[in-house]
Amino acid sequence: MNATFINGSAHSGVIIRNSNDLIIKAHAFIHSCLDLISAECLAILDACSILAHLRIKKATFESDCKNAITQINVSSPNNNWSASPIIDKINLLRKNWTSWNFKFVPRSANGAAHSSKWVASNYFVGIVPFNIIPDSIFCDDGYPILDNF
Predict the structure, then answer these.
(1) What does DSSP assign to residue 71?
(2) DSSP designation for 76
(3) Locate the RNase H type-1 domain: which residues (predicted)?
(4) Alpha-carbon dihedral 73, 114, 129, 55, rounded to 10 degrees
């Protein structure tokens, strides 16, 4: 998953892959938002919401936003942070799915998700049809966006 921040809006793209790196679903979202960190956290929350709806019990969520992943993984997140309410929602969902892991990946390894946010930044919202997904997302770069379920 990845997000971009444009004129007070979070544009995010979520790519869900299975353990064989096959794309299961691609989805784009747009939210009102005040900063990039909140935009990245909203992308993670969107991915969590999709997997909770699909009842996926085991998953690894990868993001290139180190601050967000750190705050999700600590037992006492910083409550003075702008994204704290979003982190709280992620952790509330996470309590129901104990085999969900949240992992930081460098931006260079998050190319597919970075490519996916173009859909949302073009104001496309919803399930992304496979025929408009850029070829770069289908390439196996060794870093699946969501894996192991």
Answers:
(1) H
(2) S
(3) 7-115
(4) -10
Say if pTM beats, i.e. exceeds, 0.85: no
Looking at the DSSP assignment, which residues form a beta bridge with residue 103? 62
Residues contacting residue 48 through CB under 8 Å, at least 6 positions apart: 61, 90, 93, 94, 100
Over residues 4-13, the mean pLDDT reads: 80
Q: How far apart are CA 45 and CA 59, in angstroms?
A: 14
Residue type, 119: V
Q: What is the DSSP string of 83-130?
A: THHHHHHHHHHHHT-TEEEEEE--GGG-HHHHHHHHHHHTT--EEPPG
**Average pLDDT score over residue span 50-58:** 92
Gyration radius of the chain over CA positions: 14
Helix (H) or strand (E) holding 104: strand 99-104
Residues facing 12 on adjacent strands: 3, 29
Confidence at residue 12, expressed as pLDDT on a 0 to 100 scale: 81
Taking the CA atoms of residue 17, residue 60, residue 99 and residue 18 in that order, the dihedral angle to the nearest 10 degrees is 10
